Amino acid sequence: MSLTAPSESTPLSHLFSLEGKVCLVTGGNRGIGLAVCQGYAEAGAAGIAIIHSSEATAELASERATEIQKKHPKTIVRIYRANVAIAKDIEDATKQVFSDFGRLDVVVANAGVYTETPALEMSSEEAQYVTGVNYFGPLYTAQAAARIFKENGGGKIIMTASINGHMVLRPQYESIYCATKAAVCHLTRALAVEFAQWNIQVNAISPGYIDTEMTTELVNKNPELIKAWMADCPAGRLCKVWELKGVYVFLASGASSYVTGADYVVDGGHTCH
């Protein structure tokens, strides 16, 4: 397998196609990750590997895989379990995906967790848990992907960061979450420079407030949050999760062959002021 830049004569419609590609998405069973998997199937991906975290998430992951497979019968969708905070877990899962599909082209480090615990009340265990998933997870996932890509002509690594990596949002407490997402933004740039020699592009996407299960849980606990968020968002609304499909497909496709080290902010203008 060799991932080469598209030629000048490649039709625009083909540039955005994922036909023949195999894509791995951590946290692909819900929220943003699920939308990414759906978008990749719509773009013609040959295979999608949904990485979920535990036995507790296996049933949901299986249901989501079946739904995508039924809607897109030409796309093979499989689920794999891995705790991204454990290097060997995600390494083994990534190797298994490559073995099962015979190739791997796109890896999305999307899995993440959130906490609102104030800094002075946060235990070391909670801080280590959030850091393990949100920072070391993307690092270990990128390492696993790059080891395969290096030997097979290149590939695409996409990190899910957050606007919280660019600014601190109020009124919720999220110090460790902000810190981990800021680290992911800079990790993306560092790996992009290091991995370019092997034709590996590394980019990030920093979503704003997205209408997902996690956001709903936060708002249900504190209805005042949505008012505060929208007061600072020029778009005046939450982003629908499907509105992220385009940017994830772009960064996975040949259309972004010369894009690396970038961080695409998708936030309705939230970080503009």
TrEMBL record:
Source species, domain of life: Eukaryota
Keywords, comma-separated and alphabetical: NADP, Oxidoreductase
Any one GO molecular-function label of the UniProt entry: oxidoreductase activity, acting on NAD(P)H, oxygen as acceptor
Pfam families per record: adh_short_C2
Family: Belongs to the short-chain dehydrogenases/reductases (SDR) family.
Full protein name: NAD(P)-binding protein
Source organism of this protein record: Tuber borchii
